[in-house]
Amino acid sequence: MSSMSRLLPRRESLARTAGVIRNTSYARASSARLIPLPTNPQAATNRISPFSTSTRLSCSSHNKPNNNSPASTDKYAAGLNLNKNWAAQTARDHPDLFPTLAKGQSPQILWIGCSDSRCPETTMLGLQPGDVFVHRNIANILHPGDLSSAAVIEFAVHHLRVQHVVLCGHTSCGGVAAALGNKQLGVLDPWLLPLRQVRERNLDLLQSLPADEAAQKLVELNVREGLTVIKQKSVVLTAMQERGLQVHGLIYDVGSGVLSELDSQDTDETIKARLAAFMTEN
Ligand SMILES: [Zn+2]
Asked: Which CATH architecture has domain 106-282?
């Protein structure tokens, strides 16, 4: 059976939430001091270290309008130019957005996903800056003792008081493919260890599937494993108990752009045991 066949259609409730988010007030947290990117790509070039890989942008020939120039396909230079258009267009479409965001943030969603360039969470949700607080790493792995993800979760849940925690895996994940192989990958090996442990625990199932379905299945199992880690954090359990924080598992199909929500309902017994083991107090 294909692992995707066990996925449920993404709930309408999340889509409705997205609609609500657009109308929410953003003014809560204190404002952050940010250094804006220069509006002129050449100005950006002039600030780049001579040791940066970006120094090729400083070549004057790259700044001439020439469709055959390497600069015409350089995404960094293109992005700096596109940013000006995007900022102006967004300000026209949503006149209150940037002034409100300048005062602080109040996102409703914490998104934990893969670093993969094909998985831009705010874009795929059709939301705006300020809507999604984000943590991404290779293969969206949650190590129980990882300080980075733990700090993000603590801040988002306890201080920003997000209403949804989303853990999203995706099809065609390179980290998952690596964990299904046996090639040495240096520092990536300890990082991918939890994925290999999931592989070990589900070896018979994964070996019974064609390669593409096994990869798909490990993506799903990895998300389920991560959901368990999230729900073992006392700050999350407290928010679930006291204010109805929701924790969701999603799979993103990079080939279609569509999100599917995993059915991750816990039994009463599981919830009771989890609260007994992981809920702590001041
Ligand atoms: Zn990935």
From this structure: 3-Layer(aba) Sandwich (3.40)
